[in-house]
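Task: sequence design from structure.
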C-alpha cells in the first residue's frame, strides 16, 4: 500500500486527517486541491507550492502566502503576492525585509498604474521627499506640496509651487518645530529565509521517493527493450559519412554487457537509499526533544514552596503547603504569591526589532548543572522582622486595623521563607508565634470595641475580652524578656 501510494476510499484519508496525521494522508492523495490543503495543514510549503502552481487560483496563493509568512519563508510569500498582484502587501514585505531596491521599483510600478496613494506610501517608506512633493503636485494638492517643500528646505520646488497661488491668497507656513519624517535605514537586509530545523524524511516520504526512482528506472528499461537490436549495431548506418560508425559500433559491443540492468541492478523498492554522508536514514520522522525551561526545572527538582511559586506553578505550591504544614485555605495566600511571582524574573529587549525576553536571577548561579539551579530568594527573614517592627509602631499609635492586616501578611509569608540553618529556622518559628499572638490580641481588642455598653452582659463580656488581651500581651512580653536573657547568657 505504501509502495504504490494506493488507498481505497476517501473516508480512510479523511480519517487520517481528522486523527492528526495529514502528512500520512498527503502520501495517498492525488487531487491538487486536497494535496494543497493537507500540505498547509502539516506545514509542507514545498508540496503546497507545487499544488498551488497546478491550481493557479488566487485564494490558494493567498493561503500559501499566509502559511509561508508564519514560517519566515519570505521568498514564497513574495512569489504568492506577485501572482495575486497584491502590491500593498508586497511593498510592506520589501520594507520589513530591508529590500529598498525592490521597494523603489514598487514605487515606479505604482506610478505606471497611476496609483497615487500607493506611490506616495512607498515614497514615505523610502523617505524620498522629492518624490513626495512631485506626487502631491501632480495630484493637485499644491498647498500640501508647497508646505512639504517649505518644511524640508526644497527652495526651488517651493518657488515653482508658489506660482499656483493667486494674488492675495494666503500661503501655508511651515512650523518651526517641524522635523523630517524619514524612516531609519534597515540594519540588515533579509535575503535568505528564516533558518528552519533540519529533520530527516519520514517513512512515507522516503518510500515515495524510492518508488518514484524505481518507476523511472523501469520506464527507461522498457524503452530500451522496445528498440530493435540492429538499431545501434548496423555498420552501414554511418550518419556523418566519416567512417566512425563501425568503430563506434564495436565499442558499443565491447561495453554492451555493462548495461544489463535486469541482471546486475536489483534495487529493492522498500529500502531507503543511504544519505550522502553514508548514514542510513531510519525512515521515520523523529522530532528533536524540547528542552525544559528554568521554571520547569525548579518545579521538577525542588521541594521548596517558594521555588514553585516563583516558577508560576501555584497548583504544586498549594499541594506542597497542604502536605507539609496542612494548609487548606489558599485564598489569603493569593496576593502574596502573585507579588513574589512578579519579582522572579526580569524583562529585557536585546534589540529594538526583537521581542522581549525573560531572564531569571539565580541564588546558586555558580553551579554549572542547569537542573540544580534555583531562583534567587526574593523574601528574606530580615524583611519580615522589619515588617513586624512597623506593626509595633502601628499598634502604639492605635492603628489596630492596619497593624492586624500587616501581621496577617507576615504570617502568610513565613511558610514561603528559605532558611539557611537551624538558627534562622528557630527565629522564623518565633516570628510566627509573635505575629500570631499579636494578631489574636488585636482581633480581640477590635471585637471588644464593637461590643455595646448598654447591658450588663455586654459590659461583662467587654471585661473578659480585655482581661484575655492583657494576659496575651503579658505572655508575649514575658516570652520576649526570657529570650533576651537567654541571648545574654
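Answer:
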Amino acid at each position: 500500500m505504501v509502495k504504490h501510494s494506493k488507498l481505497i476510499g476517501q473516508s480512510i484519508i479523511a480519517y487520517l486527517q481528522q486523527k492528526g496525521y495529514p502528512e500520512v494522508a498527503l502520501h495517498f492523495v492525488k487531487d491538487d486541491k486536497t494535496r494543497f490543503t493537507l500540505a498547509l495543514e502539516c506545514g509542507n510549503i514545498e508540496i503546497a507550492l507545487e499544488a498551488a502552481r497546478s491550481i493557479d487560483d488566487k485564494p490558494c496563493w493567498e493561503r500559501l502566502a499566509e502559511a509561508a509568512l508564519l514560517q519566515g519563508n519570505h521568498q514564497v510569500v513574495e512569489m504568492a503576492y506577485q501572482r495575486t498582484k497584491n502590491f500593498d502587501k508586497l511593498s510592506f514585505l520589501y520594507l520589513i525585509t530591508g529590500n529598498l531596491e525592490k521597494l523603489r521599483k514598487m514605487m515606479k510600478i505604482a506610478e505606471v498604474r497611476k496609483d497615487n496613494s500607493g506611490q506616495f506610501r512607498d515614497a514615505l517608506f523610502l523617505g524620498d521627499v522629492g518624490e513626495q512633493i512631485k506626487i502631491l503636485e501632480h495630484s493637485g494638492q499644491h498647498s500640501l506640496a508647497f508646505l512639504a517643500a517649505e518644511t524640508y528646505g526644497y527652495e526651488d520646488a517651493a518657488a515653482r509651487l508658489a506660482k499656483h497661488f493667486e494674488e492675495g491668497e494666503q500661503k501655508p507656513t511651515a512650523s518651526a518645530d517641524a522635523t523630517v519624517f524619514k524612516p531609519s535605514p534597515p540594519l540588515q537586509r533579509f535575503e535568505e529565509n528564516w533558518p528552519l530545523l533540519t529533520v530527516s524524511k519520514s517513512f512515507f516520504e522516503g518510500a515515495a521517493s524510492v518508488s518514484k526512482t524505481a518507476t523511472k528506472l523501469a520506464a527507461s528499461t522498457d524503452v530500451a527493450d522496445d528498440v530493435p537490436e540492429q538499431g545501434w549495431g548496423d555498420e552501414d548506418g554511418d550518419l556523418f559519412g566519416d567512417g566512425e560508425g563501425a568503430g563506434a559500433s564495436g565499442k558499443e559491443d565491447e561495453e554492451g554487457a555493462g548495461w544489463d540492468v535486469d541482471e546486475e541492478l536489483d534495487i529493492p523498492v522498500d529500502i531507503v537509499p543511504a544519505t550522502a554522508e553514508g548514514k542510513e536514514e531510519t525512515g521515520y520522522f523523529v522530532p528533536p526533544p524540547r528542552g525544559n525551561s528554568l521554571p520547569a526545572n525548579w518545579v521538577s527538582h525542588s521541594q521548596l514552596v517558594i521555588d514553585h511559586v516563583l516558577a508560576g506553578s501555584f497548583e504544586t505550591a498549594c499541594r506542597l503547603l497542604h502536605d507539609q504544614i496542612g494548609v487548606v485555605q489558599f485564598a489569603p495566600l493569593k496576593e502574596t504569591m502573585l507579588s513574589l511571582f512578579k519579582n522572579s524574573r526580569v524583562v529585557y529587549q536585546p534589540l529594538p526589532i526583537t521581542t522581549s525576553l525573560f531572564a531569571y536571577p539565580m541564588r546558586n548561579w555558580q553551579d554549572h548543572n542547569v537542573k540544580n539551579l534555583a531562583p534567587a530568594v526574593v523574601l528574606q527573614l530580615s524583611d519580615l522582622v522589619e515588617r513586624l517592627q512597623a506593626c509595633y509602631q502601628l499598634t502604639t499609635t492605635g492603628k489596630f486595623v492596619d497593624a492586624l492586616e500587616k501581621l496577617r501578611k507576615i504570617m502568610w509569608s513565613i511558610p514561603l521563607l528559605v532558611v539557611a540553618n537551624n538558627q534562622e529556622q528557630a527565629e522564623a518559628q518565633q516570628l510566627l508565634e509573635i505575629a500570631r499572638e499579636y494578631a489574636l490580641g488585636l482581633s480581640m481588642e477590635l471585637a471588644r470595641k464593637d461590643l455595646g455598653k448598654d447591658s450588663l452582659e455586654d459590659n461583662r463580656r467587654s471585661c473578659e475580652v480585655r482581661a484575655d488581651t492583657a494576659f496575651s500581651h503579658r505572655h508575649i512580653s514575658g516570652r520576649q524578656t526570657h529570650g533576651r536573657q537567654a541571648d545574654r547568657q
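The longest strand covers residues 346-348.
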